[in-house]
Design goal:
- The chain has 321 residues and is mostly helical.
- The N terminus is likely disordered.
- The protein contains 15 helices and two strands.
- It is globular, with a radius of gyration of 26 Å.
- A hairpin with a 5-residue loop joins strand 1 and strand 2.
- It is 74% helix and 2% strand.
- It has two domains: 30 residues; 231 residues, no CATH class.
- Helix 8 packs parallel to helix 15.
Length: 321
């Protein structure tokens, strides 16, 4: 029996040499590519993780750790991200930043607060989370664009940390409209409105990348406006943090898809189309204003772009639902 069994095996090997040996060769051949694919996926996930953390730390006051190699020494001894490499994660960071405010809004809704009070609570929580970063940019842009008569004077006014009449009015109108519009969304959508809230936070921060990658810096060697501690150190925004290029913006579009999916699963298709059109129009309008008034972008105009996009999204969604 052993001989017969051995004979069968021998015959099988002789007649079908590819039956056993090739399997061994294939394992050897594809062992390295499989390992390479695993390492590539690990590197990709690490890049997404580190870029998202860097963006959250830059765009909010949330306590997130430093992570990854995409950092360099800052003036205060801390780390600053190289946003020419990592700003494509702004849409993902927007989603994460909106979650605490959305959770507070859900709690307020469950506690029986009315839609208007819940909307105000949610947006106030978002402002606290971001340190009023973008609102500060909107106020400075309103003061500078409509308070100065020359490009140099407009930039000088925008550099001043004091807020003027135009800036105050812009904040009142922006905050008031966002509270009213989001309360309207709450009336019609209930708790699903908080999913829309997170999607709006993501897409409005994606809009920042368009002027940042398409326009020239208006402050060559000037001052950066996007600062979290109130200080405005020397060096333009692009010089300090790196300016994203077209590829970075395109990659950001890819990571904005999750926000669009959230809108698709919560809104009618018509409302989704109107919302996407609104953020495009708001971004292009902000770009046109920046070119006309100061010939390019500053950190303040990027913050104003986010505010205009957010307001445009809420307005479009409130009309379309």
């Amino acid at each position: 029996m052993k001989a017969a069994f051995g004979q069968d095996i021998t015959i099988g090997l002789r007649k079908f040499p590819f039956a056993i040996a090739p399997s061994i060769n294939l394992n050897k051949r594809f062992a390295t590519p499989a390992k390479h694919e695993t390492e590539t996926f690990s590197i990709l996930m690490n890049d997404i993780y580190s870029a998202t953390l860097a963006s959250i730390r830059f765009l909010s006051r949330l306590p997130v750790p430093d992570h990854g190699p995409d950092h360099g020494p800052g003036d205060d001894g801390g780390d600053i991200p190289r946003f020419n490499e990592t700003s494509w994660a702004f849409p993902l960071a927007g989603l994460m930043i909106a979650l605490p405010a959305a959770a507070i809004g859900v709690a307020a809704h469950w506690c029986g607060l009315g839609e208007l009070a819940t909307s105000l609570t949610t947006i106030a929580a978002m402002i606290i989370t971001t340190g009023a970063l973008h609102e500060d940019g909107l106020a400075d842009v309103a003061d500078g664009f409509w308070g100065g008569h020359s490009q140099a004077r407009k930039l000088e006014i925008m550099r001043d940390s004091a807020i003027g009449t135009y800036g105050t009015l812009a904040l009142i109108v922006s905050l008031g409209l966002r509270v009213v519009l989001f309360s309207h969304v709450l009336v019609h959508m209930g708790l699903y409105a908080f999913i829309v809230f997170c999607a709006v936070a993501s897409l409005s921060r994606l809009s920042i990348l368009h002027p940042w990658s398409r326009l020239m810096s208006a402050r060559a060697g000037g001052t950066s406006e996007i600062e979290q501690d109130g200080a405005k150190p020397q060096g333009s925004l692009a010089q300090r943090y790196g300016a994203p290029d077209g590829d970075t913006f395109n990659r950001g579009l890819l990571f904005g898809i999750p926000a669009v999916i959230l809108l698709i699963i919560t809104l009618p298709l018509f409302a989704v189309i109107v919302a996407v059109g609104a953020v495009l129009l708001a971004t292009l309008a902000s770009n046109a204003l920046s070119r006309h008034h100061i010939g390019g972008f500053t950190g303040d105009t990027l913050g104003a772009t986010q505010q205009m996009s957010e307001l445009g999204l809420f307005l479009a969604i409130a009309i379309a639902i």
